[in-house]
Amino acid sequence: MSVFDTIITGGRVVTATDSVTCDIGIRDGRIAALGADLGSAARTIEAGGLMVLPGGVDGHCHIEQKSAVGSVMNADDFYTATRSAVFGGTTSVLPFAAQYKGTSLRKSVEEYHTLAGPKAVIDYGYHLIITDPTDQVLGQELPALIADGFTSFKIYMTYDALRLDDMQMLNVLASARSHGAMVMVHAENHEMIKWLSSRLLDKGYQAPKYHAVSHSRIGESEATHRAIKLAEFIDVPMLIVHVSAEEAMREIRQAQSAGLKIYGETCPQYLFLTAADLDREGAEGAKFCCSPPPRDKAAQEAIWCGLANGTFQVFSSDHAPYRFDETGKLKAGTNPSFKQIANGVPGIELRLPLLFSEGVGKGRIDIHQFISLTATNVAKLYGLHPRKGTIAVGSDADLALWDPEVERVVRWSDLHDDVGYTPYEGMTLKGWPVIVMSRGRIAVENGELMVVQGSGKFLPREMSTAAEPLGRLAPELDPGSNFGAHILTR
Ligand code: DUC
Ligand code: ZN
Ligand code: ZN
Predict the structure, then answer these.
(1) First-to-last CA distance in the chain?
(2) Ligand 1 proximal residues by C-beta, below 6 Å
(3) Between 20 and 30 A from 202 (CA), which of 5, 148, 299, 357?
(4) CB 192 within 8 A of CB 221
(5) Which residues contact 423 (CB under 8 A, 6 or more apart)?
(6) Do residues 200 and 221 make contact, with C-beta atoms less than 8 angstroms apart?
(7) Helices (H), 105-188
(8) For 70, how many CA atoms within 13 A lie in the half-sphere containing its CB?
(9) DSSP H or E run through 403
(10) What is the SS3 assignment for 61-120?
(11) Percentage of residues in the chain with pLDDT exceeding 90?
């Protein structure tokens, strides 16, 4: 009998830190050995000429997410989204279980379980979205959910139905600190967006391109600054998601330089799209509307720089799949105002090929940075490491075998989502995953999906050391210097 179920031979095995040519022995879905001459196995995969990378972990994507009024506008369900992800080399996804005002967090998690369980083809967990931080939610539901493995959540500083005010944010941050959860923040100044939008609409500027005008760079950086100051005050780590511009990036960099545990995320739309894409013919620009919006070439360069210099720890898709029809982008008709267009762009399948080709291939980042940004750091931030995000003995055998020489022109018709278009149509990308494995199973081979719906597993997550407080209390919160007041404990 073979010692291993599968052996991968002769590939260049690359992690966030190392690159070696060796064989990988896989048993019971896990990596059981790394070495030479591992013997025989039921199946051998010849990987000469290929790079064997950890499967990607997409730490930010929206799948079957309900709107605040309870409708699901997402084009993808857990089957099509995870199918699309795995074809692009991603083997774990972390979408969101969204709470809406007046509803229970626990109930929304249960609803997402019933959606994902029968459909996902790769492993998945959820971040929570907290919109109604009542005493009951923060005092009971959230601690219990964190203990059950939902160790991260997102909060919003904008959108009427989702946003928290500073007081609510402080309460949520204090709760995250007490229970060890990672806080993700959508940082844009709500009033600035409202003010700009109403001025634009009053003056008749309605087209999709004005979406980019209504979400200013300063509004993004002001909210980023404020969120960071609240986090510093409460002494809790924080991740600023989907950073679009240099102004917000500088706030993150400055906080990091001061030793704070502030993390940054960016996404493909901020590297490859600009506001000019929102100015396409007719309503076409709606396809490129997302928040924050894509900016300009200079902002793209700044974001590349932030990936290279370590300001950003994670690169996520922020896949938000809306069809270009009445179910999605054109819900308000074929000539919508920018305020009526669903925010978000698809990208779950191309996240890795885009960064591999344009980042690693063009020398902007190295392969180890690529792996850190797309897999290892994501797993670390969200309590999945070392099970996910790396290649090590004992880790799940989630692997993507890349052919760095294959060149393909991006066509939506070759992708595996259900959106109907890709913002990256026509780009030529070099370097694609050719075999993808999920827990030792071949998930994609020869352009075919080899795993079935419902075979992905739910991932309860550990606490992350990245979410541990620094222990640097503001004097006003420190009983040693505030006349003995214990403010952070309830
Ligand atoms: N925030 C996201 O995280 N994704 C899409 C749009 C948005 O506002
Ligand atoms: Zn957001
Ligand atoms: Zn998002």
Answers:
(1) 59
(2) 186, 242, 290-291, 318, 320, 343-344
(3) 299
(4) no
(5) 269, 272, 273, 277, 287, 288, 345, 346, 347
(6) no
(7) 105-116, 135-136, 142-147, 166-179
(8) 3
(9) strand 399-409
(10) ECCCCECCCCCECCCCCHHHHHHHHHHCCEEEECCEEECCCCCCHHHHHHHHHHHHCCCC
(11) 96
From 58, 62, 65, 211, the mutation candidate for ligand 1 (largest count of ligand atoms within 8 A of CB) is 62
At residue 381's C-alpha, the angle toward residues 431 and 256, to 5°, is: 100
**pTM greater than 0.85 (yes/no):** yes
Tell me, in angstroms, the distance from the centre of ligand 1 to residue 277's CA: 18
Query: Could you tell me which of 35, 36, 29, 26 has the C-alpha nearest to residue 2?
Result: 26
Burial class (CB in 10 A: 0-12, 13-18, 19+), 167: exposed
Q: Which residue has the higher pLDDT, 93 or 70?
A: 93
Q: What residue type is 383 in one-letter code?
A: G
Cα atoms found within 13 Å of the Cα of residue 4, Cβ hemisphere only: 26
Bridging pattern class, strands 123-124 and 238-240: unpaired
Mutate to test the pocket of ligand 1, among 152, 193, 215, 290 (most ligand atoms within 8 A of CB): 290
Name the packing angle between helices 246-257 and 217-234 (round to 10°).
20
Which residues are within 5 Å of ligand 2 (an ion), measured at CB?
A: 186
pLDDT in tens, 327-342: 999 999 999 999 999 9
pLDDT on residue 70: 73
